[in-house]
Amino acid sequence: MAVMERIQAEVEGHPIVLFMKGTPAYPMCGFSARAVQALQAAGAERLHTVNVLEEPEVRANLPRYSNWPTFPQLFLHGELLGGCEVTLELLESGELQRMVSEAQSQ
Questions:
Q1: What is the pLDDT along the chain (106 residues), one digit of tens a residue?
Q2: Among 46, 86, 66, which residue's Cα sits nearest to residue 3?
Q3: Which residue numbers delimit the Glutaredoxin domain (predicted)?
Q4: pTM of the full predicted structure?
């Protein structure tokens, strides 16, 4: 499977996907750690993550797929929401909780 197809399958196959550096238990950068913490605070229980440090092809091609240059990248229902700052802003506004709840109920 081509890497772009694999990325698309990950994004479309799970309601909440976070492409990050490391894992939720062992994040390898502060931005990834804060994004995971925000998602957990918003009630995300079925969070699917992809460790881009272990997937060099995904790491190299995801910015082209999403048109977003940095990591982490958060997708809900196949749509890119953004990175760490966007995730934190959505948490502060209360929107992230609503979005996560809707994503998990489907």
A1: 799 999 999 999 999 999 999 999 999 999 999 999 999 999 999 899 999 999 999 999 999 999 999 999 999 999 999 999 999 999 999 999 999 999 988 7
A2: 66
A3: 16-80
A4: 0.95
d(CA 43, CA 81): 17
Give residue for tokens 């309601």: 15
Distance between CA atoms of residues 52 and 95, nearest Å: 26
CB 20 within 8 A of CB 51: yes
CATH number of the domain bearing residue 29: 3.40.30.10
Tell me which amino acid residue 13 is: G
State yes or no: 84 annotated in a binding site: no
Q: Is residue 106 a part of any domain in this protein?
A: no
